[in-house]
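Summary of Year 1 activities. Much of the first year was spent building the evaluation harness for sequence design. The harness presents a backbone, in tokenized form, and records the residue chosen at every position. We chose the following record to illustrate the format because it has been used consistently in internal testing since the harness was completed.
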């Protein structure tokens, strides 16, 4: 059985309670519903497959036939929209994805100079999908923008943030989600920069920041007042770091590269001190690599604001953590303790005294 990441991303995630209930049901009664596969690729039943594999429970499969991946994706989307437990946010996302898939199919057909009438239904794609699911054609187009925005945010901040949005836990309107995603493509907006209250506290602690290796700009236009800035164009991953460092790295998949770079610069004695603001991703290797080094870190209570405005509307859809690398442990504690608990890993040798 193969798991296709693109197909799996179209399957709405269950809540913790929903997954627990499904697991208890399968443990008690077995896997009653067959998993749907296309060849050896799973296209429906990902949660059941995970549970059955975990507990070595037998399951049945049923084959579906598709000529292309696009057909398979559309089947997955329509099948998921029909589920009873989809949230309003998941429904918007799936309808938007269906529209984008059909628009892409039309574009590909035109590029190949194949008459659309021979292969695709006539009429407006948005109108047909809207009629199919009982919404207006404009709603379908709005849902497509929402779907694109959610995927952009997932690429930037991680898959768990996407699930927070689609589960309905993050109380941010769809229009606001779309606007925030658009702002990711501009360097003018401060919405995704370090909140001012964090910047002020870093300045209080350091006095002066020598380097911001993940800066939005140079000089006075930069969000962080450092002596030196590396922007995306400078590629801070390829530069040598020196002195007192403040880093708020990109929160997508590339964050691991920035943490690895930090470890190397510390090992080379280039970093005098460092403060790092990251998403609190305790499920990742890069986060736990910082924890296991014994660095002090602040588990920020609540959610930080994208804009520095402490309003629920602007709160980040993920928790944050502030790491400190250096010798001034007491100073860091007293400077940042009001943001949240200050934590540090316990090592085996420290536990020996309790045995």
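For this record, the design step produced the sequence shown next.
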């Amino acid at each position: 059985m193969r798991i296709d990441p693109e197909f799996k991303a179209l399957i709405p995630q269950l809540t913790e309670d929903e997954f627990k209930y499904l697991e208890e049901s399968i443990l008690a009664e077995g896997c009653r519903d067959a998993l749907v596969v296309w060849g050896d690729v799973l296209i429906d039943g990902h949660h059941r497959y995970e549970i059955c594999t975990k507990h070595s429970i037998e399951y049945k499969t049923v084959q579906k036939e598709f000529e292309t991946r696009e057909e398979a994706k559309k089947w997955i989307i329509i099948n998921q929209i029909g589920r009873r437990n989809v949230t309003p946010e998941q429904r918007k996302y799936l309808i938007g994805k269906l529209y984008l898939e059909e628009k892409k199919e039309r574009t590909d057909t035109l590029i190949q100079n194949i008459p659309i009438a021979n292969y695709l239904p006539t009429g407006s794609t948005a109108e047909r999908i809207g009629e199919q699911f009982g919404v207006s054609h404009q709603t379908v187009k709005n849902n497509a923008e929402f779907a694109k925005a959610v995927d952009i945010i997932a690429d930037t901040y991680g898959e768990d943030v996407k699930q927070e949005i689609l589960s309905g836990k993050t109380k941010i309107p769809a229009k606001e989600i779309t606007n925030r995603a658009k702002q990711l493509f501009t360097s003018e907006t401060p919405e995704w920069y370090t909140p001012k209250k964090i910047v002020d506290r870093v300045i209080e602690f350091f006095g002066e920041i020598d380097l911001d290796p993940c800066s939005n700009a140079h000089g006075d236009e930069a969000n962080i007042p450092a002596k030196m800035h590396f922007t995306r164009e400078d590629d801070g991953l390829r530069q040598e770091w020196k002195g007192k460092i403040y880093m708020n790295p990109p929160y997508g998949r590339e964050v691991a590269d920035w943490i690895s770079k930090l470890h190397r610069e510390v090992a080379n004695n280039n970093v005098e001190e460092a403060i790092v603001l990251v998403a609190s991703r305790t499920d990742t290797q890069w986060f736990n690599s910082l924890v296991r080094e014994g660095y002090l870190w602040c588990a920020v209570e609540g959610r930080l604001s994208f804009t520095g405005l402490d309003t629920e509307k602007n709160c980040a859809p993920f928790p944050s953590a502030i790491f400190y690398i250096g010798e001034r442990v007491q100073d860091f504690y007293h400077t940042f303790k009001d943001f949240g608990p200050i934590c540090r890993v316990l090592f085996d040798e420290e536990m020996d005294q309790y045995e």
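The first helix runs from residue 5 to 8. Quantitative recovery figures across the full test set are reported in Table 2.
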